[in-house]
Amino acid sequence: MRLAGKVCFVTGAGSGMGRAAALAFSREGAAVGAMDLKAEAVAETVAQVKKAGGKAVALSGDVSKEADVRRAIEDAVKAYGALHVLYNNAGIFPGDDHSVIDTDEAVWDKVFAVNVKGVAFSCKHGIPHLIRSGGGSVINIASFVALVGCSVPQDAYTASKGAVIALTKSLAVQFGPKGVRANAICPGPIETPLLTQWLLKEPKEKAKRLNRIPMGRFGKPEDIVNLGLYLACDESSWTNGAALVADGGITANYF
Ligand code: NAP
Question: Is 157 a catalytic residue?
């Protein structure tokens, strides 16, 4: 098992790629501290992990609130005695986030609170535990939209994911010498509730995006989680400060 003996803290673990990561990490032998906003959603993830024979503890809270993140990390460490991986996946993609010229201040505040401060708080309270555990891996979920412009903009979201990549590189340089690697994953559009609930519901919008993907399909949660598994385990022990893209070729596509 690739993660035997490791403890992983996963945010946004009640849905989509976070739930898929919790399940995959536990299948590979990790004990998982699974955090999400909704207690019922994360309890369902933990139930699925346990049904499959894995170990996980449900932690509810809001990643944009430092006290919630600190408590969740402390509870994970209490449950399993150490911490080796931070999988900072919780993120929002609000429908009222458009171009910079018509997006309200409240949207910017909300998006940055969750997508950027959420990652920072997890690193603030998690990295000291990773160092104490003899080293570890920070995996921050960014997005391909931080790497290319988009004519259908979500500017607050895009800027927030750019900040995640920048922060990841800073962490990689600061904490690499202490045995803690930090990398970002930049997923392309993945079929999770975040996308299917609104964007992919409209056939015209769906076709417009599909047309831009050389692989001819949207991503699946496991396309990203497999990269997460690689970054979480020791196979990636020399990968540090990278922003790894898994997007079916979108960012390589001119025409
Ligand atoms: P998802 O299905 O919506 O799952 C995100 C989870 O995070 C949800 O359970 C959500 O809870 C939770 N969450 C939201 N705000 C939170 C908060 N403040 N504190 C704690 N948990 C919170 O989304 P996903 O598609 O799996 O996305 C996971 C990550 O990948 C996000 O960072 C997203 O930006 C990124 N990403 C997604 C795509 C894509 O196409 N899906 C592409 C690139 C990057 P609620 O359901 O209660 O809101």
Answer: yes
